[in-house]
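Tutorial sheet, problem 5. The two components below are modelled jointly, 466 residues in total.
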Amino acid sequence: MADAFVLNRGNILERLGGDEEIFAMMLDMYLQDLEANCASLDAALATGQPAAVQREAHTVKGLLATFSDESGAAAAYAVERQAKAGEMAGLAEAIAAVQARLREVAVVLAAARSAG
Amino acid sequence: MNTVLIIDDSDINLTLIKALVQKLGECQPVLFENPLAALDWCRDHVPDLVIVDYMMPDMDGLRFIGAFRALHGRTEIPILMITANDQKDVRYEALLGGANDFLTKPIDRVEFSARARNMLSLRQGQKFLADRAQHLSELVEARTCEIRDRERELIFRISRAAEFRDPETGSHIQRMAHYSQIIARGLDLDAAAQKLILEAAPMHDVGKIGIPDYILLKPGRLTPEEFEVMKGHARLGHELLKDSHSEIMRAGAEVALSHHEKFDGSGYPRGLRGHAIPLFGRIVAVADVFDALTSERPYKKAWPLEDAVRFLEDGRGAHFDPLCVEAFLAGWDEVLDVRQRFQDEEVPMI
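Model answer (structure tokens):
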């Protein structure tokens, strides 16, 4: 991914109507679900079924978009489209990149939570 | 309180939408990660709004909407479907399949609140109209009952008017009406027909209103000429009641005209034979004669029950339709109950 993730708190809060409580709750959930989401991507890839990969990539795309990570969402969307087209070749690398992005976002979010 | 059903396989989305729904106020969110489990819940519960994600395992949002709409009484409930911006084809399909509106991911609270409130307003409008329709339906039902009650009272009083000019009593019309119902039941007529004959039979002699007192009240035997006049009460009753908008009155007209016909064709006024005599006439003939025989009158003693039964049995195929006699005797215990219930001194309403 070309650009590093930067938390745009103002943008996210605007979408949430300025609700800090919901923002904090979502942040916690992201961190809590991080490994499960990465594992789901691996599991989908292991099935060899494009539909399973497409569905998990779609979920991750939405998740990253929720935190205004346009680059991460775009990478997940690329995986989703490739899987939808039934092209499994090269998907493992693309999925690994998306998983790395999920973890990168998690680090930033964890820091934001610690900072309050 | 509005029940908002939320179906999304993503925990974070479920939690986010739940929090947003709670912020709407007056809403109770019900959450499902699995659309099949949600559908199962919907069989016994009616949500006020459904918010469903498109892409889910086991069953996607489109298939969920189709299955949900197929459930009884769920065709109008508002559905918001959550899709990504790029899924225009899915949106078209969802609109055709029964979704009312969409939410785009990532979810924006302002957009969410506006769309959800619109959908809930739609639902409130539906409920208001449904409640109003139900209220109006109950009102119509209540008014119809009042009209029916008035109609029945009127019929009873018309019948009584005829009976007042006759040595027979108000209890006679009650008993013979209930005997008629017993026969109708014994003949396996449906419940509506049984009720109809119960209400129409009391009018069998209403034509006696038009018979001169010197004949109607004559203590001795009628001359042949007087009897001819007396027989006219069948046609008079029919004239009085025919062509009514009321089904009961029309049935009463038929009974009035045909209750003195005899199965072998020797009755009056038309000398009809067998099944050419209307069924209600054949039924009332048995009920009326039995009660007349077993009742005391100023000019005669009441017959013993066994003699009256023998008279009916002897008259099978001649005076009476054999099947009507059989149905009457098959309901003998009920006949005795009716005799006990409607004794001559008291005149209760049907």
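Marking note: Chain B touches chain A at residues 9-13, 15-16, 19-20, 23, 55-57, 84, 86, 105-110, 113 (CB under 8 Å). Full credit if you identified this.
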